[in-house]
Amino acid sequence: MEILTIGGLAKATGTKVETIRWYEREGIMPAPRRTAGNYRAYATGHVQRLRFVRRCRDLGFSLDEVRELLLLVDQPNQDCGKVRRMAAENYAAVMQKISDLRELAKELRRLDASCEGGTVADCRILEAIVPSGNSAA
């Protein structure tokens, strides 16, 4: 079994050292054993768990959701229905964000097309952003 320092764990997982420490403080990562010199000594299980956490975060799961998923991972005989529901909820949230971003892109494209150049005083984009008679200042 290979033992890693915190720097080695960071490198093996693409995670910043401070993030690893924070995950430990938050209980997301179990505390590693300590060497005689009081250095953290991480094992293969830490690498696997941190990779799992990173992948969950990449998929958009919140830290609370990651905690729930970790509890389920630690109970492999449980029904996976909760995991599936969590994934479905995140999928729906991602699809909503995509829809919102498309609407935002259309609005920005419309604003850009309305610009004829000239001075800021005559800027159609700023005019569309700031309602008539109001000042941004």
What does this structure look like?
It is a single chain. The chain has helices at 6-13, 17-25, 44-58, 63-73, 81-114, 124-129; strands at residues 33-34, 40-41. Strand 1 (33-34) and strand 2 form a beta hairpin. The mean pLDDT is 91. The chain is an all-alpha fold and 137 residues long. The chain has a two-stranded antiparallel ribbon with strand order 1-2. It folds into 2 domains: 1-59, Multidrug-efflux Transporter Regulator, Chain: A, Domain 2; 79-137. It has 6 helices and 2 strands, in the order H-H-E-E-H-H-H-H.
What is the topology?
Blueprint: H1 6-13, H2 17-25, E1 33-34, E2 40-41, H3 44-58, H4 63-73, H5 81-114, H6 124-129
Quick structural summary:
By secondary structure, the chain is mostly helical. 61% of the residues lie in helices and 3% in strands.
